[in-house]
Amino acid sequence: MQTPQPTTLSSTTPLIHTSFYQFVPLADPDAVVEVIRDLVTPLTGNVLVAEEGISGALAASSSLLDAFEHALRHDPRLNGLFSNITFKRSACTTRPFWKVRVHRKSEIVALGLDGVTGAIPDRSSGQHLNPQAWRELIAQDNVVVIDNRNSFEYRLGRFANAIDPSVDNFRDFPDYVQAHAEQWKDEGKRVAMYCTGGIRCEKTSAWMQQFGLDVYQLDGGILNYFQSLPDADKDWQGECFVFDNRIAIDTHLQETKTTADEVYNDSDDEAWRLERAHRLDSVTPKSDTP
């Protein structure tokens, strides 16, 4: 198969956002970093690489993303590590990123629990629910629906009847689970868990099973739900926060007019997030178009 050839990105080229992750043991993550840095040269965004896998969000023209996605799956230097990786695309009005960075990290999503990794060889595929199966599950009475995101994300939008664990950082989520696991078991509840793209649920679901919980997760997260179901707004209330300059998207994967000032409150954790967003706004106002 011939690799698609990238084209030059001009200031007027319509941009597409792509997000992706894959938990897979990497024997030499530093070598993977060097290959990824070569592949992302014409793009903008961020990619994280750790021993447990890869996670990224990038933006470019459709043709540039075609070339990158093909290379990530087929570049011989990567030895097929990411041949089955899934990409989720959405449209852009605001330019999501202005630079491209590839970071070497200890975790691609920082849970902060020693020995806990998303790269688990015997993970049960039965606990991953496609969007239609998820819709059917969360409509049942014996299910507790957990939003595995930060509180500011929950406030902006959520599945109907979802619970906010009231965490300001993903590292706080395990404490919430441990405080409620016995109650959920005593009540005979199954746990349905979701996050933006699936990566946070992927990292925590296997760890949660040690408490005897029956845990299910939305495969591909909210973005896959929006992408798969034209009537996603039947179950989803509000918007979905995205970690780039667009701020938020609706159930049709279209950027909304929501600003950072409408997302964050005055708590210490959210104050620094708002300050960072304002720094970005000074470079790329919300009204700018690519």
Q: What attributes characterize this protein structure?
A:
290 residues, alpha/beta, Alpha-Beta Plaits, Oxidized Rhodanese, domain 1, 2 domains, five-stranded mixed sheet, four-stranded parallel sheet, 13 strands, 29% helix, disordered N terminus, disordered C terminus
Describe this structure in words.
This protein is α/β, with parallel strands linked by helices. It has two domains: 16-104, Alpha-Beta Plaits (2-Layer Sandwich), CATH 3.30.70.100; 125-281, 3-Layer(aba) Sandwich (Oxidized Rhodanese, domain 1). Helices cover 29% and strands 21% of the residues. A five-stranded mixed beta sheet has the order 4-1-3-2-5, with helices on both faces. Strands 6-10-9-7 form a four-stranded parallel beta sheet. A two-stranded antiparallel ribbon has the order 8-11. Mean pLDDT is 89; it is low at 1-10 and 284-290.
The geometry reads as globular
In CATH terms, the superfamily of the largest domain is Rhodanese-like domain
Strand content: 15-25%
Give the spatial strand order of the biggest sheet.
Answer: 4-1-3-2-5
Order of helices and strands: EHEEHEEEHEHEHEHEHEEEH
**Structure classification:** alpha/beta
Per DSSP E runs of 2 or more residues, the count of β-strands stands at 13
CATH topology of the largest domain: Oxidized Rhodanese, domain 1
Main β sheet profile: 5 strands, mixed
What is the correct CATH architecture of the largest domain? Answer: 3-Layer(aba) Sandwich
* Overall structural domain count: 2
Helix fraction, binned, reads 25-40%
Total helix count? 8
Overall mean pLDDT stands at 89
By CATH reckoning, the class of the largest domain would read: Alpha Beta
Q: End-to-end distance, in Å? A: 32 Å
Radius of gyration computed on alpha carbons: 19 Å
Which ranges are low-confidence, i.e. pLDDT below 50, for 5 or more consecutive residues?
1-10, 284-290
